[in-house]
Amino acid sequence: MTNGLNLSRRESAVFEAIVELYLRTGQPVASREVAASKGQRLSPASIRGVMVRLEDLGFLGRPHPSAGCTPTDRGLRFHIDSNVRNHRPTAAVRRQVEARFRQAKQAEVDDLSWVAGLAADLTREAGVAVRPVGEDPALESLALVPLGGGRVLGVVVTVDRWVEKRVASLTDQGLRVDLPALAARVTQRFSGQGLESILECLAEEAPESMGLSPEEHRFLQEIFRNRGESEVEVAGTENLIENEAFSEVGRIRCVVRVLEDRPRLAGEWRRALRTNSTRVFIGGESPLTAGGNLGMIATLFYREGHTVGAVGIVGPRRMLYKQVVPVVECIGETLSAYLAAGAAG
Which residue has the higher pLDDT, 277 or 293? Predict the structure, then answer.
């Protein structure tokens, strides 16, 4: 975070020129390059003075003393918070995204693999789609299916059409439990309530007050405690392999590890998006992005006011955030609109 620090107009112009040059070339930026960039009126000597000030603030660093400057993670965070956050998608981007949705069938729009592929195609990075993400999902129905040996599969369906499969055990195997009837009673009692709220209710209320035996009560607590795994789809990994920013074998391995560790990726997005509808991760800001010098962008999508999931990308730390962030946000907004239309239809 930048702690509300503001740069002067001159400092901001020099800093943004350095960021743009670095993001496009990947090379340390010298004062003479800044002086030659569009809109700059300062001499190289004056720019060097500003660069020293920006280094003191922690916005710029140097690979070695005689080299030019590159933005630090703190500098890129300032760039994103100050100049990217309110940068809305262009009309051309909106037309491109909306055209892809119009060409798709409703089943494709509901398919996370299609969503991840769309993000990859439109950004030329690795696209990622995750669900569920966000607030406590509400129960629509519960089904209980015997698996044998006292084990039971609980199929939890939420109002946003997410299906979670959870396994629990009936420890008293001699007890005869009418599983369909129990599932129907739970659905009738708790339909529309959040899954975490249901678990809290089961923990606080006595079994007899709910018309349950102690074993049924314990069993239902286990069902609602065992969170199902998130569904995570990744597409376009070839985009990263072809990206010159990942020319080193070690960096490619880091990218592959991040994308393969899907539960960890989903967990990081879920935590980060609790308070923001869009989140940008830069380099050392996240354990996932630090090792491979990566960047990630994630945004939420919704159905009928409920958070359903998130879509975004994984790419190099050095990416054109001003272009990529609006594209990701536009995909999330358009996806929300199509999911709402599908629910209404």
Answer: 277
Q: What is the pTM of this model?
A: 0.77
Q: Rounded CA gap, 187 and 108, in Å? A: 29
> Taking the mean position of all CA atoms in its chain, how far away is CA 245?
22
Secondary structure (DSSP) of 213-225: -HHHHHHHHHHHH
Q: What is the pLDDT of residue 228?
A: 67
Write the pLDDT tens digit of every residue in 263-286. Answer: 889 888 988 888 889 999 998 898
State the pLDDT at residue 1: 43
Q: Tokens for 197, please give them.
A: 């709220």
Percent of the chain with pLDDT over 70: 92
Concatenating the DSSP letter of every residue in 253-306 gives: HHHHHHHH-HHHHHHHHHHHTTS-SEEEEEGGGSHHHHTTTEEEEEEEEEETTE
Q: Are 72 and 18 in contact (CB under 8 A)?
A: no
Domains for the chain: give ranges and CATH numbers.
9-83 (1.10.10.10), 91-133+231-344 (3.30.450.40), 139-225 (3.30.390.60)
How many whole angstroms separate alpha carbon 273 and alpha carbon 290?
A: 19
